Amino acid sequence: MKILAVKPELCNGCGACEEICAKTFFKVTDRDKSTIRVAQIAEGKYRVDFCNQCGECIAVCPTQALYRIKNGIVRIREKDCVGCEACIGFCPDLVMYAVPDDVVPIKCIACGKCVDVCPTKALFMAEVDVPAPVTELTRSIRVKTGAGSHGN
Question: Is residue 8 one of the residues assigned to a domain?
Answer without folding.
Answer: yes
